[in-house]
């Protein structure tokens, strides 16, 4: 039995048999795979001969779409547009670039597909974090991100930072931090504990923070567990145009670990859409689709007898949610828009106010029509 078959549920770049498997890759892909395996990230030139034209077009056409007011007033450290692929072909083309998909598929061992885009005009100045707590897979770690620089990045306009080697840490989840189903439902004030944990672990292991001073058109792949964030933007008048695309891999199930209390029967299975096709992707574990019986057990509001099951889920207004008056709900929050803009939340049967407070704000989800 081959090493790949022995551990089919472990990404090639995370496999203990990596040295044997990487020899099967072309040299350029092997270099990317080796960097990702050793460091948790890999840098490459984005493989699209029209990429400059596409990036410049986005920079030219997008400024009016951003919420500049809160950023200019200092109420937000950044601004972003999530899932612009739905309305802009250039964003979709970058996310679904065939050469990138081929590279990711080869070095992970399952077929990659894009499921989310984020477009930034300025630096995020975001604390160090690992993406797996927001979106992860079953089996573990079949998720990665690709960050593409739309302009040259230096120390003054908020470069991406990361802790090389942090991707080797365990994917600690709520049960490891003692966070129960009850506390998840009540609120999620515990996210800072993850941030503190990652920072303390980096200090304990002596990992040094590094930054990515990218050239325009350079991209960086990072592993699901790599701790990364946005450096302080020293020059507040500088832009830092970029696009992030998040990728999952086929034949997995997709979850939000921050919302899970797995051993008490609560798993938030995400309803993922493949950007290439615009169609939903089934949640699959070990070759079997996650069935309605399990999904109903973890999401009791779902009614599997209805073909349009999502239509049976409640719609919320200010009188039905105790989170509607939460101080972190922004002015102009539109619960109907929030659900319509994010179909995975409809299928999950969540209260849009509660979801925004616990997860949506951190994930940068759109909450009103621009």
CATH topology of the largest domain: Jelly Rolls
Sketch the topology as an H/E string, one letter per element: HHHEHHEHHEEEEHHHEEEEEEEEEHHHH
Helix content: 25-40%
| CATH class type of the largest domain | Mainly Beta
The rounded distance between the terminal residues' Cα atoms is: 54 Å
Supply the CATH superfamily name of the largest domain. q2cbj1_9rhob like domain
The fraction of residues assigned to DSSP E strands is: 15-25%
- What is the count of DSSP helices, taking H or I runs of 4+ residues? 14
* Overall tally of domains: 2
Overall mean pLDDT: 85
* Radius of gyration using CA atoms only: 20 Å
């Amino acid at each position: 039995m081959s090493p790949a078959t022995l551990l089919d549920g472990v990404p090639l770049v995370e496999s203990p048999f990596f040295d044997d498997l990487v020899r099967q890759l072309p040299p350029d892909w092997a270099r990317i795979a080796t960097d990702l395996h050793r460091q948790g990230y890999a840098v490459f030139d984005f493989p699209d001969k029209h990429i400059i034209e596409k990036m410049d077009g986005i920079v030219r056409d997008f400024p009016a779409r951003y919420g500049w007011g809160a950023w200019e007033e200092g109420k937000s450290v950044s601004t972003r547009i999530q899932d612009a692929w739905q309305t802009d072909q250039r964003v979709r083309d970058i996310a679904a670039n065939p050469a990138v998909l081929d590279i990711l598929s080869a070095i992970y061992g399952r077929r990659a597909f894009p499921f989310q885009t984020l477009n930034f005009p300025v630096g995020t100045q975001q604390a160090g974090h690992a993406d797996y707590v927001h979106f992860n897979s079953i089996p573990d770690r079949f998720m990665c991100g690709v960050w593409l620089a739309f302009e040259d990045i230096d120390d003054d306009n908020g470069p991406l930072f990361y802790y090389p080697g942090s991707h080797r840490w365990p994917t600690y989840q709520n049960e490891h931090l003692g966070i129960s189903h009850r506390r998840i439902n009540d609120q999620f004030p515990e996210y800072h504990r993850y941030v503190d944990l990652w920072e303390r672990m980096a200090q304990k292991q002596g990992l040094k923070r590094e930054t990515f001073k990218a050239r325009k058109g350079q991209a960086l792949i990072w592993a699901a567990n790599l701790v990364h964030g946005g450096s302080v933007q020293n020059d507040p008048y500088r832009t830092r145009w970029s696009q992030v695309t998040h990728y999952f891999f086929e034949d997995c199930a997709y979850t939000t670990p921050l919302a899970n209390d797995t051993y008490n029967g609560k798993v938030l299975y995400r309803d993922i859409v493949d950007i290439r096709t615009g169609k939903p992707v089934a949640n699959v574990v070990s070759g079997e689709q996650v069935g309605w019986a399990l999904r109903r057990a973890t999401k009791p509001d779902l009614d599997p007898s209805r073909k349009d099951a999502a239509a049976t889920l409640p719609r919320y207004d200010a009188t039905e949610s105790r989170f509607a008056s939460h101080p972190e709900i922004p002015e102009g929050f539109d619960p109907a828009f929030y659900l319509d803009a994010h179909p995975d939340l409809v299928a999950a049967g969540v209260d849009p106010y509660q979801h925004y407070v616990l997860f949506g704000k951190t994930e940068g989800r759109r909450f009103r029509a621009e």
